[in-house]
Design goal:
This protein is an alpha/beta fold and 263 residues long. It is built from 8 helices and 7 strands, in the order H-H-H-E-H-E-H-E-H-E-H-E-H-E-E. It folds into 2 domains: 1-55, no CATH class; 58-261, 3-Layer(aba) Sandwich (Rossmann fold). The longest helix is centred in the first third of the chain and has 16 residues, at 58-73. GO terms for molecular function: methyltransferase activity.
């Protein structure tokens, strides 16, 4: 029954183009079987979190290792961390955990996530047609923002200085919310900005808004640069900063993620 429901949800995602699947059928089968083992694991509930590594694939682990290395690059920098495009919130939660490891007493290292929580808004011609996405693609359930906020609160509560809230979720269209947030917080210095909106319009709006709040050494991380499925992210970066002005780097552990150090 659980497997049937899960397969139905996965098929709905593919039909609405809320999942870009590049895996072979064999890889998809193995991933599905591993997911089933996770759901059906005969591990006591109070030991599940301590054994999540049992189910991490090299692909999933590579993303976490990437952000661990990136986070360590900003430890000696002042400023906040922003993620543009949160969706399920795994990266945001992982960032809170990294802060708890590397700088648990840094009260200035606020972590802020921006998302519509209603899927894509502002899909344009500059996003091409290969991804076949549209308005509302990659949406999450209507109450997911509250669920994520509860998870982040627990994550923060397991680390020092839990009495000071150092994370925030900002819901809405980035074409307005990022600018509004920074107007309300003119003191903001951005040490790390992660761009995972996928599409052109919100990415460009966020890039333009954060530009005055960056300093030498600020890191910008991108999930879809040089990606023919989501060309809008690269176009937006080129229009705001100019690709010729940037050194776009990557780590060998993951193919899709890249980063820029502001100079």
């Amino acid at each position: 029954m659980v497997d049937g429901k899960q397969k139905h949800l996965e098929e709905m995602k593919r039909n609405s183009f809320d999942a870009i699947v590049l895996s072979s059928s064999g890889e998809m089968d193995l991933q599905g079987r591993l997911s089933r083992h996770l759901r059906e694991a005969p591990i006591p509930g109070d030991e599940i979190l301590g054994n999540l590594g049992l189910f991490l694939t090299s692909k999933n682990l590579s993303r976490l290792l990437f952000f661990s290395e990136i986070y360590q690059k900003i430890i000696n920098m002042h400023g906040v961390v922003m993620e543009f495009g949160v969706r399920w919130g795994q990266t945001l939660s992982f960032l809170l955990a990294l802060r708890g490891i590397f700088e648990p007493f840094n009260r200035h290292r606020k972590i802020i996530g921006f998302d519509t929580f209603e899927g894509f808004k502002g899909v344009s011609d500059k996003d091409g047609g290969k991804c076949r996405c549209g308005e509302g693609s990659y949406a999450v359930p209507g109450d997911y923002e509250q669920f994520l906020d509860a998870v982040l609160g627990l994550q923060e509560g397991l680390n020092p200085m839990a009495h000071i809230k150092r994370y925030e979720l900002v819901k809405g269209d980035a074409a307005h919310t990022v600018t509004d947030y920074l107007k309300s917080h003119p003191e903001t210095i951005i040490a790390l900005a992660i761009f995972d909106f996928d599409i052109y319009t919100p990415t460009k709006a966020a890039l333009e808004a954060v530009k005055p709040h960056l300093c030498k050494g600020s890191l910008l991380v991108f999930d879809e640069l040089c990606d023919d499925i989501f060309p809008g992210e690269t176009i937006a970066l080129n229009e705001v900063f100019g690709l010729n002005n940037l050194k776009i780097q990557r780590l060998p552990i993951t193919a899709r993620l890249s980063y820029v150090v502001m100079e």
